[in-house]
Amino acid sequence: MTTHYYSPGPASLPTAVRDLIKIELLDTFGISVSVMEISHRSKQYEGLNEETLRLAHDVFEVPDSHKLLITPFGAQQHFSLLLNHLSRPGDTVAYTETGVWAHLATVDARASERKVAVVYDGNPTLNSLGQPETWQIPENAKYLHLTVNNTVEGTEYPTLNFAGKVPLVLDMTSALASRRDIPWDRTHLIYASAQKNFGIAGCSVVVIHKDIFEQARETAKRNILGNALNYCSIYDAKSVLNTPPVFPIFVMNRYLHWMKSAGGIETMERWAQERARLVYGEVDGEFYQGHALPEHRSRHNFVFKLKTPELDALFISEAAKAGIHEIKGYRTLGGVRASMYNGISLESAGYFAQFMRTFKEKHG
Ligand code: PLP
């Protein structure tokens, strides 16, 4: 039976990428040495690294106004790093409370003696992202931090075209490489760990506006961040300041190649919308209750409930018998969450939608 694995992250890789990794793992460069063993100063690894940086720029459609680097951290380290590159104690910074990860980003900001303006609080339901055009964003805020896709709650901004002039900082951990509408002029910084849309855990991508790059370097120094935590030093070292997480970067390289040959983010975006259409087509109606307001639905994390917790549990256990796994809702929300990133095929999404339909016919 085919396995349909809808984990919120780490997430399924495209089948072609999995297959390629299996073939290349133990002899990655044709010299009988694996990518896990080769020196990061070897010409083979340097070639892989430089190609990955180039491909990431290209596939993520990063304009020349921005610099891209790869760091060894996950997304949560960036909560603290970004604020230490973009602000000083006493500065005002703006955040939204839209879910578990957005909240943790504000916790780090509060702990660092910034004045934190929460311009939107979606609690307690966390099923909406509000009306950004009505937010009161302090004009002196160094940035507005947004979690573009709330992985736990299954909400996502339909547009990133916000009113006002305050620079944007975007957590795109579960959104990079699946939407093209980034307002680059206004975006000072983007970060995303790789394990959802373009790789496995162990590395993340940071994109910084060139206009603030040198200023960010100095701000980080004044905030007493060590050299190896300074984005600019990592960038200067072509993202090989540490001994890098070579295997995750290799996987990212193969994933980026796969995306490029499939037609780039344009295709990824279209497929994400199509998967969402298939699943929400079943969520709509009487039997399933979607968590997010329709206008703020995530294109990756499909969160819904059935009429009773017992029916939720039956849905999850019947799904397992049909080869569908890792769909239990987050502990604070209950219900079901099926997460489908770039690695999930349209056929798989169709299979899940069909399962929902059959389950409804049987138990509705
Ligand atoms: N931000 C978002 C939107 C996430 O979904 C996650 C993880 O699921 C994180 C941050 C934290 O990522 P990491 O585990 O790489 O620190």
Question: Which secondary structure elements does this structure contain, and how are they paired or packed?
Answer:
Blueprint: E1 4-5, H1 15-24, H2 43-59, E2 66-71, H3 75-86, E3 92-97, H4 100-110, E4 115-121, E5 144-147, E6 149-150, E7 155-156, E8 168-171, E9 187-193, E10 204-209, H5 210-222, H6 231-236, H7 246-262, H8 264-283, E11 289-290, E12 301-305, H9 309-321, E13 324-325, E14 336-339, H10 346-363
Parallel strand pairs: 1-13, 3-4, 3-5, 5-8, 8-9
Antiparallel strand pairs: 2-10, 6-7, 9-10, 11-12, 12-14
Residues 9, 74-76, 101, 147, 151, 171, 173-174, 193 line the site of pyridoxal-5'-phosphate (PLP).
CATH superfamily of the largest domain: Type I PLP-dependent aspartate aminotransferase-like (Major domain)
Architecture (CATH level 2) name of the largest domain? 3-Layer(aba) Sandwich
CATH class group of the largest domain: Alpha Beta
CATH topology of the largest domain: Aspartate Aminotransferase, domain 2
Which hetero ligands occur in this complex? pyridoxal-5'-phosphate
Shape: globular
* Tally of DSSP helical segments: 10
Please give a structural write-up.
With about 375 residues, the chain is of the alpha/beta class. The chain folds into 2 domains: about 15-260, Aspartate Aminotransferase, domain 2; about 265-364, Aspartate Aminotransferase, domain 1 (Alpha-Beta Complex), CATH 3.90.1150.10. About 40% of the residues lie in helices and about 15% in strands. It has helices spanning about 15-25, 45-60, 75-85, 100-110, 210-220, 230-235, 245-260, 265-285, 310-320, 345-364; strands at about 5, 65-70, 90-95, 115-120, 145, 150, 155, 170, 185-195, 205-210, 290, 300-305, 325, 335-340. It has a 7-stranded mixed β-sheet, with helices on both faces. Helix 4 links the parallel strand 3 and strand 4. The radius of gyration is 21 Å and the shape is globular. The relative contact order is 0.17. The protein binds pyridoxal-5'-phosphate. The site of pyridoxal-5'-phosphate has 11 residues, from helix 3.
